[in-house]
């Protein structure tokens, strides 16, 4: 019976114990003693707790007794648990530490503009790249509104920080693209071949880029293709220059997709009306098609294939400089094929594997009678094939650090023929790289790497060390520095005629500061770049050229100040001189302007459902060669300053079930005269301005999409 | 005597179990009814509620409802916040709670509805660039919610809301919003929550939306 009594006592008194109320109170601050409101204070295992007030204080009563665990939780802070005695009744002082999250972790930023949705706090989003009036949905044209890039609109490619267009490499999913631009006619630059909508991320590096990539002295344009589309859809488009149609199909399980797109462009009806400076004698006509296949092979595995084929023909008559009154003809047939296959997978133990293979082939058949009529018109045939494979392993070390190891092999066949004269060569290029992103603290990172390359046609090996450091001072601001050596093979047209050439070399030094907040971005960079071993063509082909480039760049973007308005301003100052090709000594080259600026303005009118865009670009005059000047005044003349205003408007609506958009865009709307340089006749008596073939281009189009709403894409295309 | 003792022991332990469940039901009833009152619908009020539900959730660990309500309070807080930089962290936290809720109650139509709201909240951070991704995602999640339980009235309320606030050129429509919201009200009338603490919110809000769609 005594036993039972004891049990009874227990049952009777237990509830009494739990009715005892203990008061718990205190204050929560951060490490800098600032009060933290909204902290969830809880006695573990019970409902008891409180939320801290604006001054960080809290107070509540609990029925829990004795020693208990108290937890304090707040987003962006590390959860703290502490042992308390509920009966002690003391005032608790709790200090929470910042949690390390992606927003607070520093990333390497010197020299690069990244447009990505994946990462927070990037300067640009992928769509920003293409929502730029006057860019005409061309990635390179949009990038020209960023600091570092020149307004070099008479030849294709990105001319970055005193570098030529050849010094910028384009990479898709890590694989080199040998011909990223359409073949160009003299003074008429080719557009980029690839639609901006293929890519989820774009990184424009104006210097100091990673050891993963090589063979670009100045810059890298790193494009990352999208994985799977959100939904199946189909689209058609009609415009003043052509038609297009596409189909994207996503499987039911959302793991596989395929797509096909095709377009036909014919500019001759348009040119019949606007009458360009040089009248067309062939086309211009372009047939393009692309296919893609993507498959999520596992939770972490992704296989992607992209294939592209394009057939272009175009030709123009121009007035002969040598023989006034005569016309000269230049005709081009181009075939281009590009394929890219990549596979990524997590292979366990924090190791990841990336494999890529690509093949491209480009053929230009040029038929020109620009030289003397006698003996015969010149027929030029250039074909370049490139096959490449690339393997990379990367391993996460700790929370943020990464180690990357990889190698690549390229086989290039360069064939060319001028009438009956042939000059062919092949190159076996091998490269290996290793690179580590080492986080000393979450706000201080160093990237150290190196790249070794061997090219069989040059018979030479190189080793390029690269180092960057970045330090984040607070959530918004960071400093970065970068240093690196960059090597590149001379252009095929020089290797063709001389096998004694070696690598060209550039060394980059960059200091950058950026402040990136939700609605605005400020960025500035100072750089110095030293060129050595540039190709000279006189007296014989050699690597004795050299040069330098230095400057300062500013970028400001604001999406907050004006409602429905997003604008950015960029400015670049460039001081560069080089001695290369046939230059007699170091001068500012003809593709470089000292001052370049752009303003990009976008305004959305929700009531009219219309987007308006305006882009203004400015550049000071560029040097040009005037044969009438004495040698010591080589390249001392300057062209007029460059001004260009592009506008676009797009109206969104629905026609039956299809989302439809009407687009109007006008380049150089004010009709500013733009002169990029001059051509002189051999005797120096006559000259011809290098101007855009059409001073102002008016584009009108309509796009319909069935299924997924892609109108935003089209607006962004302007 | 022994038998009496054993019987007593059983009754006792049963009573404790009942008491605990009563504590849960009482706390949840109190908290959910406060959630219905308009006074709670301030950023601070919702944060307090979210914290309270998280405390209950962590103490219980086997109930999906407290996780669900914590996420609900967090996404509502995200939707009324002026400071857009706070939306993503809140949405992350709400998603964390929903992951736990879903582990306890898979294929739950109510949870899918909150996920759709989270996508909408993320969209509002930057509609111009995020619309492409989160607009279709919010809609797809509602489709999923309808797959799990087509009788859930909140699906039609959220669809109606989206139709009402999307510009016509983007596929919105006042008349379609009106029919969808009327359907939502029918579903509300027919809807029987599983218990007094099961999700039952949204009817008065639907009426408000319906008024707006008739203007």
From TrEMBL, chain A:
<dbReference type="InterPro" id="IPR008969">
    <property type="entry name" value="CarboxyPept-like_regulatory"/>
</dbReference>
<feature type="signal peptide">
    <location>
        <begin position="1"/>
        <end position="20"/>
    </location>
</feature>
<dbReference type="GO" id="GO:0009279">
    <property type="term" value="C:cell outer membrane"/>
</dbReference>
<dbReference type="Pfam" id="PF13715">
    <property type="entry name" value="CarbopepD_reg_2"/>
</dbReference>
<keyword id="KW-0472">Membrane</keyword>
<dbReference type="InterPro" id="IPR036942">
    <property type="entry name" value="Beta-barrel_TonB_sf"/>
</dbReference>
<keyword id="KW-0675">Receptor</keyword>
<keyword id="KW-0732">Signal</keyword>
<protein>
    <submittedName>
        <fullName>Outer membrane receptor for ferrienterochelin and colicins</fullName>
    </submittedName>
</protein>
<keyword id="KW-0998">Cell outer membrane</keyword>
From TrEMBL, chain B:
<keyword id="KW-0732">Signal</keyword>
<feature type="signal peptide">
    <location>
        <begin position="1"/>
        <end position="21"/>
    </location>
</feature>
<protein>
    <recommendedName>
        <fullName>Tetratricopeptide repeat-containing protein</fullName>
    </recommendedName>
</protein>
<dbReference type="InterPro" id="IPR011990">
    <property type="entry name" value="TPR-like_helical_dom_sf"/>
</dbReference>
């Amino acid at each position: 019976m005594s036993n039972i009594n004891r049990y009874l006592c227990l049952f009777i008194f237990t509830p009494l114990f739990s009715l005892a109320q203990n008061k718990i109170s205190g204050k929560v601050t951060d490490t800098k003693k600032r009060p933290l409101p909204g902290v969830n204070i809880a006695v573990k295992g019970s409902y008891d707790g409180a939320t801290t007030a604006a001054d960080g204080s809290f107070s509540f009563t609990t029925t829990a007794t004795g020693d208990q665990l108290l937890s304090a939780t707040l987003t962006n802070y590390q959860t703290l648990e502490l042992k308390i005695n509920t009966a002690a009744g003391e005032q608790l002082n709790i200090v929470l530490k910042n949690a390390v999250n992606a927003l607070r972790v520093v990333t390497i930023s010197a020299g690069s503009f990244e447009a990505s949705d994946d990462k927070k706090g990037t300067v640009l989003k992928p769509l920003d790249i293409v929502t730029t009036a006057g860019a005409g949905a061309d990635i390179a044209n949009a990038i020209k509104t960023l600091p570092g890039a020149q307004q070099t609109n008479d030849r294709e490619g990105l001319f970055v920080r005193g570098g030529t267009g050849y010094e910028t490499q384009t990479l898709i999913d890590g694989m080199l693209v040998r011909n990223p631009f359409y073949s160009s006619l003299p003074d008429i630059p080719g557009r980029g071949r690839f639609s901006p909508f293929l890519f989820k991320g774009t990184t424009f590096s104006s210097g100091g880029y990673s050891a993963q990539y090589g063979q670009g002295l100045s810059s890298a344009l790193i494009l990352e293709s999208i994985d799977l589309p959100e939904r199946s859809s189909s689209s058609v488009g009609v415009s003043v220059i052509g038609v297009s149609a596409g189909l994207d199909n996503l499987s039911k399980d959302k793991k596989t997709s395929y797509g096909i797109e095709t377009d036909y462009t014919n500019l001759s009806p348009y040119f019949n009306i606007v009458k360009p400076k040089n009248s067309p004698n062939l086309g211009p006509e372009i047939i393009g098609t692309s296919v893609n296949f993507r498959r999520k092979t596992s939770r972490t595995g992704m296989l992607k294939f992209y294939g592209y084929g394009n057939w272009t023909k175009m030709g123009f008559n121009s007035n002969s400089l040598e023989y006034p009154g005569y016309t000269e003809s230049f005709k081009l047939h181009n075939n281009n094929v590009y394929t890219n296959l990549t596979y990524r997978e997590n292979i366990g133990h924090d190791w990841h594997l990336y494999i890529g293979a690509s093949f491209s082939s480009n053929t230009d058949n040029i038929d020109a009678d620009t030289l003397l009529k006698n003996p015969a018109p010149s027929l030029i045939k250039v074909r370049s094939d490139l096959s490449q494979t690339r393997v990379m392993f990367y391993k996460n070390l700790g929370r943020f650090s990464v180690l990357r190891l990889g190698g690549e092999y390229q086989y290039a066949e360069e064939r060319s023929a001028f009438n009956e004269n042939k000059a062919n060569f092949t190159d076996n290029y091998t490269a290996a790289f290793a690179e580590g992103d080492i986080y000393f603290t979450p706000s201080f990172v160093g990237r150290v790497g190196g790249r070794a390359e061997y090219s069989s046609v040059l018979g030479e090996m190189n080793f390029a060390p690269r180092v960057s450091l970045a330090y984040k001072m607070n959530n918004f601001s960071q400093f970065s520095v970068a240093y690196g050596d960059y090597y590149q093979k001379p252009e095929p047209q020089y290797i063709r005629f001389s096998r004694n050439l070696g690598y060209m070399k550039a060394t980059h030094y960059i200091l950058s500061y950026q402040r990136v907040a939700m609605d605005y971005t400020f960025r500035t960079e100072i750089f110095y770049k030293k060129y050595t071993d540039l190709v000279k063509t006189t007296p014989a082909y050699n690597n004795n050229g050299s040069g330098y480039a230095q400057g300062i760049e500013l970028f400001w973007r604001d999406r907050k100040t004006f409602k429905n308005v997003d604008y950015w301003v960029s400015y670049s100052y460039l001081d560069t001189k080089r001695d290369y090709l046939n230059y007699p000594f170091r001068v500012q080259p003809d593709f470089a302007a000292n001052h370049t600026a752009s303003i990009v303005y976008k305004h959305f009118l929700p009531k009219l459902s219309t987007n308006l865009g305006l882009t203004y670009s400015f550049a000071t005059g560029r040097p040009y060669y005037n044969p009438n000047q004495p040698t010591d005044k080589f390249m001392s003349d300057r062209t007029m300053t460059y001004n260009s205003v592009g506008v676009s408007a797009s109206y969104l609506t629905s026609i039956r079930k299809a989302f439809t958009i009407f687009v109007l865009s006008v380049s150089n709307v004010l009709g500013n005269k733009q002169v990029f340089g001059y051509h002189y006749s051999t005797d120096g008596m006559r000259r011809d301005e290098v101007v855009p073939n059409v001073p102002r281009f008016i584009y009108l189009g309509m796009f319909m999409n069935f299924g997924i709403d892609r109108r935003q894409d089209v607006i962004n295309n302007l | 005597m022994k038998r009496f003792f054993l019987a007593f022991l059983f009754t006792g332990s049963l009573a404790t179990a009942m008491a605990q469940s009563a504590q849960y039901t009482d706390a949840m009833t109190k908290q959910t009814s406060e959630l219905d009152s308009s006074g709670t619908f301030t950023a601070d009020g919702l944060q307090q509620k979210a914290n309270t539900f998280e405390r209950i959730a962590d103490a219980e660990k086997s109930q999906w409802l407290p996780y669900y309500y914590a996420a609900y309070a967090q996404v509502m807080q995200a939707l009324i916040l002026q400071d857009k930089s706070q939306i993503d962290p809140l949405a992350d936290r709400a998603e964390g709670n929903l992951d736990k809720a879903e582990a306890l109650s898979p294929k739950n139509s109510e949870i899918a509805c909150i996920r759709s709201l989270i996508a909408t909240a993320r969209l509002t951070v930057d509609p111009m660039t995020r619309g492409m991704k989160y607009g279709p995602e919010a809609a797809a999640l509602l489709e999923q919610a309808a797959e799990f339980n087509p009788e859930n009235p909140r699906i039609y309320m959220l669809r109606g809301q989206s139709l009402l606030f999307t510009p016509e050129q983007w596929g919105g429509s006042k008349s379609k919003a009106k029919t969808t919201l009327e359907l939502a009200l029918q579903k509300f009338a027919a809807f029987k929550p599983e218990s007094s603490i099961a999700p039952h919110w949204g009817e008065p809000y639907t009426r408000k939306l319906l008024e707006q769609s008739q203007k």
